[in-house]
């Protein structure tokens, strides 16, 4: 065997050893990589878990999360005035809806169940429609709505004025900060999880 053939065989053997070591070393790394990627995709908070499970709604207004909710002063269909600042220490859900909206109507039993389950000290639901007071009042009586219903055509501050689709819900924590905003039908289970999430 010539020196040239011997050198070529030696280089081939070294390359083969390097490839084998690379494969052996890379094997476990490739197995761990999907686990790491999966860990990065795992929801980090209770809210993230609820969002990951959503199929009939989506989060909106993310830039407002953690910020104080702008003050609202609204009068409900019974004539009672409500200021958001009065509900500090209570979870609040602002629901933007309409009597003609099918998903809004489908959401009503979920809201009624939450109202029955949680006291007004734990949860305040303010359902806001921009329809005529008479229309909303008649609908609320017909459907036996057990939560606060408001009909207003007032110009509301952002983010409330940014609502373009209904139902839209804005969840406030006990400090009056925006926890989450959703567009679409939120069922009772998801709404409860959002309300109770820290």
TrEMBL record:
Domain Thioredoxin intervals: 63-198
Gene Ontology MF annotations: antioxidant activity; oxidoreductase activity
Domain of life: Bacteria
CDD domains tied to this protein: TlpA_like_family
Cell membrane listed as a keyword: no
Residue intervals passing through the bilayer: 6-24
UniProt keyword terms in alphabetical order: Membrane, Redox-active center, Transmembrane, Transmembrane helix
Protein name, as recorded: Thiol-disulfide oxidoreductase ResA
Native species: Anaerohalosphaera lusitana
């Amino acid at each position: 065997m010539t020196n040239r053939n011997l050198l070529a065989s030696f280089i081939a053997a070294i390359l083969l050893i390097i490839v084998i070591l690379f494969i052996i070393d890379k094997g476990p790394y490739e197995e761990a990589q999907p686990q790491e990627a999966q860990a990065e995709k795992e929801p980090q908070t209770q809210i993230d878990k609820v969002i990951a499970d959503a199929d009939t709604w989506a989060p909106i207004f993310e830039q407002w999360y953690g910020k104080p909710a702008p003050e609202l002063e609204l009068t409900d269909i019974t004539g009672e005035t409500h200021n958001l600042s009065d509900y500090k220490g209570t979870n609040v859900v602002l629901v933007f809806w309409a009597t003609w909206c099918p998903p809004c109507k489908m959401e009503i039993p979920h809201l009624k169940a939450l109202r029955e389950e949680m006291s007004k000290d734990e949860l305040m639901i303010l359902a806001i429609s921009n329809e005529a007071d008479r229309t909303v009042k008649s609908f609320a009586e017909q459907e036996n709505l057990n939560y606060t219903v408001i009909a207003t055509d007032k110009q509301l501050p952002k983010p409330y004025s940014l609502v373009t689709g209904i139902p839209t819900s804005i969840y406030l924590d006990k400090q009056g900060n925006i926890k989450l905003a959703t567009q679409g039908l939120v069922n009772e289970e998801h709404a409860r999880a959002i309300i109770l999430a820290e």
